[in-house]
Structures are given as structure tokens and as C-alpha cells.
Fold HNH nuclease domain-containing protein.
Amino acid sequence: MAEALVLNATYEPLCVVSQRRALVLVLTEKAVMVESAGQVLRSAAASVDVPIVVRLARFVRVPYRSQVPLTRKGVLARDHHRCVYCNAPATSLDHVIPRSRGGAHVWENVVAACGRCNHVKADRAVADLGWRLRTAPRAPSGAAWRILGSRRMDPRWSAYLSTDVTEAASA
């Protein structure tokens, strides 16, 4: 089974769960099916549509982190799996200001890079090499990044998520 998006009672995206868990939420009347996956599960007594998006019956207050955690998958998704220096397929991460020169391990200093560019750059600054970044690195924003992270997004969820993560997750 695939995954399903769980929305709060106010249609705010909360998390992604397995379709099995989403079906259990619907059957126990803790959630209402908003959109079907187009599949049907049958038993001897009943047949039930498999949910792809569910909405909780009661509002749940969830404290969110102020910033998305920095992960390798997240950086690669943000940079569309392309090297920020030469646009080749990215296979590693690179610190724009090297850590050996005081650079921090934060979203604004970490970029996706191909192996060749990462090896050539080593612990030098981008300006020393005369290189330029295709895009300035920044921390991803929006509730959808906290929910999806670097997961692949089902296209049917796009109506419930913000557009900035829709572009990154589809790459």
C-alpha cells in the first residue's frame, strides 16, 4: 500500500501515513475520507474505498518546529538533485563556506554538488575559484516541507499543500 495525506479538521496538512492507517482512521470514524485512491478493498461483508487524503473529525493542535531539519535528502530535494555549480546530477553535499574556514552546517551554507565539483572545490571558497552558485541556498519554508520532508509527493495532494514544496518534491 502507498501513503495517504492526513489533514486537520481545518484542512491544514498534518502528516503522511500509510493507506492502511488512513483506512483505520476512517473506519473508526476518527477521520473522513476527502479523496479516494481509486482502489477498493473488499471483505465478505463490505467493500471500502482506499483513501489517499483524509481529514480528521476533530481539530488537533500540533506544535511545529520553527525550522525544517537539515538532512541530505532535504538538501538534494531543495536543489532538484542537480549540482549548484555545473548543473550535473548531484551525488554529494558541499559547504559553500567550508567548515574548516568557519562555515556553519545550516541550510544557507549547504548545497548539492556533483562529485567532480566537490572534489575540485575542496576546502576553498567559491569566490577563490571564480565560480558562482546557480541559486542562493536558503532554508525551505512552509508547512508542507515539515510534513513531506524529502518524500515523493502524490500529485493528488497538491491541492492541499503549498506550491513551493510541490515543485521540489516533483523533481
